[in-house]
Design a protein that fits this description.
With 263 residues, this protein is an alpha+beta fold. The chain has eight helices and eleven strands.
């Protein structure tokens, strides 16, 4: 197959073909030895949906599967340049093939991947950060204590401040557990932590020490260890119990011990 003559064609989609506005969704490479035709398609319709403001759903996969089967049926046993050009010209509807272009092929699979990368590519999904609450839920479940915790009702303070917490448990005082992220520069991270300090102080005072706020910090993107230590010190001064996701073992032990005492 080294240095053999072949052809390639772009697979293109248009929501309204009459406007001749197409988006590349795949590539087809034709080679002169079995299996004769190679095809690669976008795995996700993000680019198409963004271009035409449509939601294709499973229809996108069905269109690609249909074309892939047709290509194998037509050219799986060989082809000529004329047969390729006729096939391309006969395509109509929302999916079409671009005019074939000559290609010197050394490795069909490599050529397919290179052309796909250059002419089609994939729109990578935006990596969304995992919320601190989600990480906390996973950590408590992994530690086997998620079922030992309550889902507390929000606490309304006399000032009108409402404290929402993810979990709760009893250990002499009722502990309201919630998570925060310390991501970003120190100023932004401190802005996220400060409200919890104030809430914790108010909660402790108004409940006559019967309720305490417990804050779990996701410190994975924190500025540095000294900043986390400073936040921990400030939380303690405001009567807030403070832990990090990296070291939840003291909290886990306390939850288990007090669950056994109260049940």
């Amino acid at each position: 197959m080294s240095g053999s003559q072949g052809y390639f064609s772009l697979v293109q989609y248009a929501e309204l073909p009459e406007r001749a506005e197409y988006v590349n969704i795949g590539i087809v490479v034709f080679v002169c030895a079995a299996p004769y035709v190679f095809a690669k398609f976008s795995q996700r319709p993000r680019r198409v949906q963004a271009a035409f403001n449509v939601n294709l759903g499973v229809h996108f996969e069905l269109l690609q599967a249909s074309l892939s089967n047709r290509l194998r049926n037509e050219f799986g046993n060989g082809w000529s340049k004329d047969s390729l050009e006729n096939f391309v010209q006969q395509r109509s509807g929302k999916v079409r093939l671009s005019p074939i272009r000559s290609l010197l092929i050394k490795d069909p699979a490599q050529s397919l991947d290179e052309l796909f990368s250059q002419l089609v590519g994939e729109v990578k999904p935006i990596a969304r950060p995992v919320r601190a609450r989600t990480k906390l839920a996973s950590a408590l479940k992994e530690a086997g204590v998620d079922t030992l915790l309550e889902r507390p009702e929000p606490v309304q303070l006399s000032s009108g401040v409402r404290i929402d917490a993810q979990y709760g448990y009893q250990n002499g005082a009722f502990n309201l557990i919630d998570a925060i992220s310390l991501a970003g520069d120190p100023d932004k991270a401190l802005n996220k932590a400060s409200p919890r300090m104030i809430e914790g102080s108010l909660l402790y005072r108004e409940s006559l020490q019967q309720k305490r706020l417990v804050v779990i910090a996701d410190e994975s993107e924190a500025h540095d260890a000294s900043f986390v230590d400073m936040v921990s010190s400030q939380m303690e001064q405001h009567k807030v119990r403070f832990y990090t996701l990296r070291d939840l073992s003291p909290l886990v032990l306390d939850i288990r011990k007090n669950y056994a005492l109260h049940h």
